[in-house]
Design goal:
Layout (H helix, E strand, L loop, with lengths): L6 H14 L11 H39 L5 H10 L6 H10 L1 H11 L10
């Protein structure tokens, strides 16, 4: 019985890996073994960063909100509980978009939450 080397299967696999690595610089974009390692590592990064992307955006929205609220003499940590007490159900993404694109509407939201602000007693 003749020996089967599976050359076509391996060639197809190698071609697929090298195509995925085509944008990599130097050896990882050209040599199969390094392309294999780099594409595996790229997959790990892609998987990790799909989760981290959500965290990074939330941080960005909170930073924007905090900056907009500081201009209105309110701290972020006091504003969010006041917003909940006022019954306003806008998420941080929408609040930060309002603060950037429509400051008048954001001012209206802040004024609705202002009566519910907890002011600490002076010691």
């Amino acid at each position: 019985m003749p020996r089967v080397t599976r050359g076509t299967v391996h060639a197809r696999k190698r071609k697929r890996i090298l195509k995925r690595a085509s944008g990599f610089r130097a050896a990882p974009g050209v040599q199969y073994r390094q392309a294999l390692e780099f594409t595996r590592k790229a997959d790990v990064y892609a998987h990790r960063d799909r989760r981290q992307k959500k965290r990074h955006f939330r941080t960005l929205w909170i930073t924007r909100l905090s900056a907009a609220l500081r201009q209105r003499d309110i701290s972020y940590s006091r504003f969010i509980p006041a917003l909940i007490a006022a019954g306003i159900e806008l998420n941080r993404k929408m609040l930060s978009e309002l603060a950037i694109t429509d400051p008048a509407a954001f001012d209206a939201v802040v004024e609705q939450a202002r009566p519910h602000l907890h002011v600490p007693k002076a010691a």
